[in-house]
Design goal:
Blueprint (H helix, E strand, L loop, with lengths): L2 E2 L17 H8 L23 E2 L14 H7 L4 E7 L1 H14 L3 E10 L3 H15 L1 E3 L1 H7 L1
Helix pairs in contact: 3-4
């Protein structure tokens, strides 16, 4: 199964604290990920198909926090996760760590993640991914299916 966990916000960002700092402050000031705009829309190349699941309610960095992702995975008998997305050193890392701590078998697709810099991406892949997942490329993953 393919499961998408997009982050989206209302137009007034009421989900984010007024005194937010760090990345969420940047989301707010940058007017990013608005559910009503292109920033909250899926790119046509990765748009969910009819048989894929879209997790709603993601308002932070981790795919598990503020969502029912864990419930969906367990209800579908899913124990193995292959994680991909953006930001490598933020949302991917956070979701990967939580999945690992919840007992899932975690694979992180190293060439299906991106960060705001090559250095940030490479540092996460080299140092953090091996601690909480099996880091492999998409081709390596497909060969193992």
């Amino acid at each position: 199964k393919v499961i998408h966990a997009p982050i989206t916000f209302t137009d007034d960002y009421r989900e984010i604290a007024s005194d937010a700092y760090g990345i969420l402050a940047g989301v707010k000031t940058g007017k990013s990920f608005l559910a009503s705009g292109w920033g909250g829309a899926f790119n046509e190349k990765i748009k969910p198909t009819d048989n894929e699941i879209v997790v709603s309610g993601k308002r932070g960095l981790c795919g598990f926090a503020s969502t029912n992702l864990d419930f969906i995975l367990r209800q579908n008998g899913i124990e193995n996760l292959a994680i991909a997305g953006f930001l490598t050193n933020c949302c991917i890392e956070s979701t990967m760590r939580t999945a690992y701590e919840k007992g899932y078998h975690v694979i992180t697709l190293t060439d299906c993640c991106a960060a705001t810099s090559v250095e940030a991406h490479e540092a996460a892949v080299k140092f953090t991914f091996p601690m909480f997942s099996i880091p492999i490329t998409a081709d390596e993953f497909i060969q193992k299916l």
